[in-house]
Amino acid sequence: MNTRLKEVRLKHGKKQPEVADVIGVGVSAYSMMESGQREINGSKLIKLAKYYGCSVDELLGTWYWHEVESHRKEEE
Question: Which one, of 22, 71, 76, lies nearest residue 44 by Cα?
């Protein structure tokens, strides 16, 4: 799964150990989640969304498609 975990973490000026601690995993596990080598489950995504004050869609990168679809419908 391709996510925006690293992009959002860097945007908020956080280090991997801090974020890994928030979701209760080791740094190596979190690093693998950022790189797409390991899946991140829904409960961990929700914790991260609350931590960063954003939506799960933003973490997953799916918010963009909602915006595109919304604009497309407005133009019809």
Answer: 22
